[in-house]
Amino acid sequence: MELPDGTILMHAGAPYDPVKAHEYYMRTRQLKGRRKGSGYTVRLEGGRTAHLSEQQLKEQRAYAAKRVGEIKARLVELSAKLREMKASAQRKTDHKPTAADRSKIKRDARKYRERHRSELASKARRRASKTHSSKSHSRQSGVVELEKKIVKIRSNLRAAVAKQRALASATKNG
Asked: 43 and 60 in contact (C-beta within 8 Å)?
């Protein structure tokens, strides 16, 4: 490479070659991103990262621990309720009504139908006019709904625990 005054630019005892220098740079480059101040880097789900100050990190950790505790308590509560409902449903199916019980049930049902005839007719019309069928409200449907809630809460718990672990493994910047 020639300088404006006509001399040749030398590098390490040989003439400078800008193409060769660029090729060397491309082979050996190791680029590093800019470091943003002090704080903590937290890896979130999906490969994302967040930069938090020490105070924010403490608050996030406290919130995550509280949330995990609340979800666990709710899960224990719902599990106990599910066991109770299943036991209740089992007790109800174990007891078979006698002939006297069946006749009393029929008599009561007939009296109810006679007293609430117009109300039952309007309910039947409304049910028939609906385009979609409603779920059966048997004892089992309550159990099924509760099981669905428990599954949802367990997934929330997994997410909260993952967030708590991510906050626990935060690394110091700077």
From this structure: no
Read off the pTM.
Answer: 0.47
- Compute the distance between CA of residue 153 and CA of residue 76 in angstroms, rounded to an integer: 10
The residues, ordered by sequence, that sit 6+ positions from 142 with a Cβ below 8 Å of its Cβ are: 85
The CA distance from 109 to 81, in Å, is 30
Burial 46-78 (b: 16+ CB within 10 A, else e): eeeebebeeeebeebbeebeebbeebeeebeeb
Number of structural domains (the chain) is 2
157, 72 contact by CB (below 8 A): yes
| Sign of the four-CA dihedral 163, 167, 169, 174 | positive
Residue 119 lies in a domain: no
What six digits make up the tokens of 145? 């709904």
pLDDT 10s digits, 126-157: 888 875 555 445 556 778 888 888 899 999 99
**4 belongs to a structural domain:** yes
Between CA 30 and CA 72 the distance in angstroms is 46
For the stretch 74-85, pLDDT in tens is 999 999 998 888
- Packing angle, helices 54-94 and 139-168, rounded to 10: 160
Domain span holding position 11: 1-30
